[in-house]
Design goal:
Layout (H helix, E strand, L loop, with lengths): L1 H17 L6 H4 L6 H6 L1 E5 L14 H7 L3 H10 L20 H11 L3 E7 L26 H9 L5 E7 L6 H8 L6 H18 L3 E5 L6 H4 L1 H10 L8 E2 L31 E6 L19 H13 L2 E7 L9 H17 L20 E6 L2 E6 L7 E4 L12 E4 L9 E4 L2 E5 L12 E6 L4
Parallel strand pairs: 1-2, 1-7, 2-3, 3-4, 4-5, 6-7
Antiparallel strand pairs: 8-9, 9-14, 10-13, 11-14, 12-13
Helix pairs in contact: 4-5, 6-7, 6-13
Protein name: Putative alpha-L-fucosidase
EC number: 3.2.1.51
Keywords: Glycoprotein, Glycosidase, Hydrolase, Signal
Length: 452
């Protein structure tokens, strides 16, 4: 018995050692993605910072104004601010006086999202938490005088949502970064003295379940010391067993390494990928940050949003839906409306989305605007356009109708199975009168194959 217990102890120790990850991509990429992330499917992205004060053009305001001197930004400043005005002067106007984190969290719950990702620091370098590495360029010292990351984290954690943080590696005008850049990234003073300590501070203080990295594209992963940091994150950090990360860890890394792939902004390949991925996209088609000069045609309709979600989920991705809050800390009504509409749709059709898997076919070969998900043995067909004459014709799903006892129901009208007929290489499904249907904007069929 003693020998058995000794062997058991040794095996346990070996298991623990083997679970450690080396600072190499081969080792880091072997880490299983925590399963909560794939099940969640839908997240909310929040781009919020000092750029929310001018709220003109995009979150790249400072760089467009003073980095590449884009005409419209320069003209905007010349016409509205004195010549001595600096970007830092916007900081005191980032007031967040109407920021009610519990209201935000409640809105995100109603949207049907399962996780939230807040920009803790964008490329401007301003941190939404009192970072000791931000040199008084943070929300505690300048602007709202509060810990915005902590406030939202606490509110979100009173719900069932997972809390995550975006963090930019580079900063446009930080002198240490620009010195390293001038040295062709052969020096790493910025990374060693600011970025690595800053990220560890962020992780240790707020323990996010998503670390969404960005701003990596000017330098390789070796400069950012990405593999060393990720080894610490996966081996030693307080979130080592639950955190998920993306692929923006160096100019040579995107869509190749990392927990989930983002590949590009608004990435929506339209086909199944062999690796878990995420479509980070915006309700405002133009900008990630809030813009006062946005017009109605710039805002996604609810049908456009559901379409993007459906295409993404059917191809195995998650969707991260961005809205930009105002400098006062509000989410404007049109963004609230889209999120609430999405939540209304998901309250009826969520079974076709949450915890689903990609099916063997992603979209129908006969009728456009029909996308599939699955929870074996059930297959869901999400129909983005109401069928002509209430008759839906499917080509890719015909194999599911090989026996007469296959059942089809319309989610939201589950008590009334739909009649269907298999004809040659297609199946025709009779939809009910549209006036009797609960769902709006798009409709999900639950197809349960009969016994064979």
């Amino acid at each position: 018995m003693m020998l058995f217990l000794l062997l058991l102890t040794l095996c346990g120790s070996l298991t623990q050692i083997s679970a450690q990850y080396d600072p190499t991509w081969d080792s880091l990429d072997s880490r299983p993605l925590p399963d909560w992330y794939d099940k969640a499917k839908i997240g909310i992205f929040l781009h919020w910072g000092v750029y929310s004060v001018p709220s003109f053009g995009s979150e790249w305001f400072w760089f467009r104004w003073q980095g590449d001197n884009t005409y419209t930004y320069v003209k905007f400043m010349e016409e509205n601010y004195p010549p001595t005005f600096t970007y830092q002067d916007f900081g005191k106007e980032f007031t967040a006086e109407f920021f009610e984190p519990e209201e935000w969290a409640n809105l995100f719950v109603k949207s049907g999202a399962k996780y939230v990702v807040l920009t803790s620091k964008h490329h401007e370098g301003y941190t939404l938490w009192p970072s000791k590495y931000a040199y008084s360029w943070n929300a505690e010292d300048v602007g709202p005088h509060r810990d915005l990351v902590g406030d939202l984290a606490n509110a979100v954690r009173q719900t069932d949502l997972h809390f995550g943080l975006y963090h930019s590696l580079f900063e446009w005008f930080h002198p240490l970064y620009n010195e390293d850049k001038t040295n062709n990234f052969t020096t790493s003073t910025f990374v060693d003295t600011k970025i690595i300590p800053e990220m560890k501070e962020l992780i240790n203080t707020y323990q996010p379940e998503v670390l969404w990295s960005d701003g990596d594209g000017e330098a390789p992963d070796s400069y950012w010391k990405s593999t060393e940091f990720l080894a610490w994150l996966y081996n030693e950090s307080p979130v080592k067993d639950i955190v998920v990360t993306n692929d923006r860890w160096g100019s040579n890394v995107g869509c190749k390494h990392g927990g989930f792939f983002t590949c590009a902004d608004r990435y929506n390949p339209g086909h199944l990928l062999p690796h878990k991925w995420e479509n980070c996209m915006t309700v405002d088609k133009v900008s990630w940050g809030y813009r006062r000069n946005a017009v109605s045609r710039d805002i996604l309709s609810i049908h456009e949003l559901i379409t993007t979600l459906t295409e993404t989920i059917s191809c195995g991705g998650n969707i991260l839906i961005n809205v930009g809050p105002t400098k006062e800390g509000t989410i404007i009504p049109v963004f609230q409306e889209r999120l609430l509409q999405l939540g209304e749709w998901l309250s009826i059709n969520g079974d076709a989305v949450y915890e689903s898997n990609a099916w063997s076919v992603q979209n129908d070969t006969l009728t456009s605007g029909v996308w599939y998900t699955a929870k074996e043995p059930v297959v869901y067909a999400i129909v983005l356009n109401w069928p002509d004459d209430n008759l839906l014709k499917l080509g890719s799903a015909n194999s599911l109708f090989s026996t007469d006892d296959t059942q089809v129901v319309l989610l939201g009208n589950d008590d009334s199975p739909l009649s269907w007929q298999s004809v040659d290489d297609q199946v025709n499904i009779a939809f009910p009168d549209k006036a009797t249907v609960t769902s709006e904007w798009a409709w999900a069929l639950k197809i349960t194959p009969g016994s064979t």
